[in-house]
Specification:
This protein has four helices and eight strands; from the N terminus they run βαββββαββααβ. By secondary structure, it is of the alpha+beta class. Strands 1, 2, 3, 4, 5, 6, 7 and 8 form an eight-stranded antiparallel beta sheet that branches. This is Putative flavin-nucleotide-binding protein.
Length: 151
């Protein structure tokens, strides 16, 4: 990282950012074409969980190339100035890389959906098994992740 004074190295702070984030941008690549998707997600133990429809471009890409990158941010705030070039942002962010694995087992789907739902609320009931059968669930096993903050 070029600005080492902004780097977040503490794994507990990285986990805190991941648990507070509301949107995860999932980046994939297919035949030299980048593709980024903002998604709802869940995070637990250095694994990100996602749900999706049963078809679509991201699934086609991930089935061929399961390598992915992700980004989340929290605490964003615009910092203004009288000079345009001095404007900035306050934020905490995490960027990471990993490999996607599709979840097919019903019990594992239930667990993954529970983690996704917990990201947003502790009071949501789990979907029925029929509902889970109608969605695709996958996880991103994180190989590396780094944090950055500007405050």
């Amino acid at each position: 990282m070029r600005r080492s004074e902004k780097e977040i190295k503490d794994p507990l702070i990285l986990d805190e950012i991941m648990k507070k984030a509301q949107v995860c941008r999932l980046a994939v690549s297919y035949q030299d074409m980048p593709y980024i998707i903002p998604m709802n997600f869940g995070y637990a133990d250095r694994v990100l969980y996602f749900h999706s429809a049963q078809e679509g471009l991201k699934l086609l890409i991930l089935q061929e190339n399961p390598q992915a990158c992700f980004e989340v941010e929290i605490n964003t705030q615009l910092v203004t100035s009288k000079q345009a070039c001095n404007w900035s942002m306050r934020y905490q962010s995490v960027v990471g890389f990993g490999e996607v694995e599709f979840i097919n087992d019903l019990a594992a789907k239930r667990e993954a959906m529970g983690i996704i739902m917990k990201q947003y609320s502790n009071d949501l009931p789990l979907p029925t098994d029929n509902a889970l059968a109608g969605v695709t669930l996958f996880k991103l096993n994180v190989n590396t992740m780094t944090g950055k903050q500007s405050q």
